[in-house]
Amino acid sequence: MSGHDLFPSATPEYILSFQFSSWYPAFAKHTIKSTIIRPLSSEFMEYMNADRVFVPEGSEDAPAESTLSDDEKDENPDDSEEDADEESQKRYAFPELDQQIRDCVKEYGAVFPKLNFSAPKARLYSSSVPLTDVSLSFRLPIQDAVWLLPASAPLKCTSPADVYLLLKSSDFINHDLGTDTVFEGCSFDTNNPPDYQLELVLRKWYPVDRGRELRCFVRDNKLLGLSQRDTNYYEFWNNQQTQRDITAAIKIFWETNIKAHWETQKDYAFDFLLTRDLSHGHILDFNPYSPKTDPLLFTYEELHQFLQKDLCAVLRVVDSRSHPAATSNAPAYQHNMIPFEAVNMSSGRDIEDFAELWKESVKKSMGKDFD
């Protein structure tokens, strides 16, 4: 079986049809209300590619307060060196973009940011934690961390600083920052690359029950498979009548609201959020039908077999707590987690100093020796 059998031809035009600004106008009434900001300045792109995790000047709605006492500051012999390092770092400020973000927050109440294709998976800090420059002197695996987040409000941004820090702390959005990753696997003249502009998308935020999300796969204009997106075990998914009702509801939605309007593509995946009563839902995103898009509880070989056998809308869910894909005891992206306090402590220190400081902090918080 060749790769061409499994996937449609990857061209720049095909990939670009899945960036947010390409599909949102046609499906705006069936998805979350959003604002697209483009073009973005070259300086913003430079900021996004900078190694340090920090917020631009003027982006916070309230001045950050130091968590160190005056005595602690006086006792730190490295203060002058850290100050010198900070002075040598380039500073960024985006007052016009800040205002656009604040306008969206005022309109929506709160926002969730993403770029052309990719979105962060979880927020690095909570709004109760003062924002500071959290530049790192060594690379810490902080991307898409979920420490200190209340389950009811992850990814919720209410200021420009929230938006910037969430994007900067995410590893997933790096895909969107360069044509080499965006058009990976595509053939095109490197001397005449596709026209690609970075865009910032601000979506109206509201709490989402991930247990009601599905990823749906369409090939040759046929709805082949529906996969539970969050691979934890949910009891309601294993009621046979519920499965039939959900499958029927998604088929009707797809045939009525997507198939008839997605005129440019016959091969794609779309993420779908069911309403609380599971009777209908909303589009969350569109993705290319390609290896980059996680097939979740399927494999692309299985989906190809469905196409050959003319099977339609096969629903697959985590049917038991012992299902191989179940992650109920292990948070997603746990290998990337690190507490916000650890990021603060790391600034200006090498790995040995940081390890000792973190050990002392844990010892104090536990009130006992830590070996």
Key descriptive features of the protein:
single chain; 371 residues; alpha+beta; 5-stranded mixed sheet; 3-stranded antiparallel sheet; 13 helices; 32% helix; globular; Cell division cycle protein 123; CDC123
In short:
Belongs to the CDC123 family. The protein is of the alpha+beta class and 371 residues long.
Structure description:
This protein is of the alpha+beta class. The chain has helices at 3-6, 12-16, 20-27, 42-49, 70-75, 79-88, 95-108, 160-168, 179-182, 240-258, 300-309, 340-346, 351-366; strands at residues 34-37, 111-114, 200-204, 213-219, 222-228, 268-274, 281-288, 314-316. The strands form two sheets. A five-stranded mixed sheet has the order 7-6-4-5-8, sandwiched between helices. Strands 1-3-2 form a three-stranded antiparallel sheet, sandwiched between helices. It starts with a helix and ends in a 5-residue tail after the last helix.
